[in-house]
Design brief:
Blueprint (H helix, E strand, L loop, with lengths): L6 E5 L4 H12 L3 E6 L7 H8 L4 E5 L5 H15 L4 E4 L14 H29 L2 E6 L3 H4 L5 H21 L4 E8 L5 H4 L3 H9 L9 H12 L10 E4 L6
Bound molecules: NADPH dihydro-nicotinamide-adenine-dinucleotide phosphate.
Amino acid sequence: MRFDGKVAFVTGGNRGIGASICKRLASEGADIAFIDRAPDPQEEVTKAVNNFGKRAIFYEADVTDKAMIEEVVANVVKELGSLDILVNNAGITRDNLLIRMKEEDWRAVIDINLTGIFNVTQAVAKIMLKQRSGSIINIASVIGISGNAGQVNYAASKAGVIGVTKSLAKEFANRGIRVNAVAPGFIETAMTKALSEDVREKARQLIPLGFFGEPEDVAAAVSFLASEDARYITGQVLVVDGGMIR
Ligand code: NDP
């Protein structure tokens, strides 16, 4: 129970990789606050966290709404007592070739994937800087390292996430706050289920391990980076992709 007494804040925690991260951190002792644009009528994550004997608070909030995020973060500290782990997970894709990409699709991806991290991290950092401890994990993507045709907006946002991670690691190091990123490859979630079978098969051929990862594989990497086992690791990008990029 390495996160006993700790509070984790996870964006986009209702489903996919975010939901898995909430459950994994709770299974190791953390209380969980998580946000999403839409409510989950089944309250699946809340129930799972409660089943580990941990508290869960859900907020319907958009990472692009800075004022709302500040209100939510203040409320988390009031309700759960502190904020020790931040996982910036919320993200979207709006794929198209550059020549056909609408400006609104460029902006939506940058706003959510990159400016969203600025909004949430700025609000949470104020708490962590005061308590002089914390661990921040940003979910990037291998596409932010390798690039990909048809994903200029997504690649730019995720390369930006890596730049934010490395810069903040340097900015916060002397205040006891570590900042790292996890860069997943192809993971089985709604995001990749939306791909055609043809694209999925081509992707599989690029993965030396031969299969798509599960959200739990990303959650395991997040849990490691959030923990004291990673106390000497900051400013790093941990690639979780079955060996796809080198
Ligand atoms: P999903 O689409 O399954 O889940 C994304 C989550 O983020 C949803 O809960 C979504 O909520 C939430 N979200 C989206 N926009 C906002 C917003 N503006 N404010 C708050 N929450 C928001 O995606 P994944 O679980 O696959 O992806 C999670 C992260 O992992 C993303 O950052 C993604 O880029 C990254 N990633 C995923 C990979 C994959 O193969 N799946 C590979 C590499 C990186 P809503 O229900 O409202 O849409």
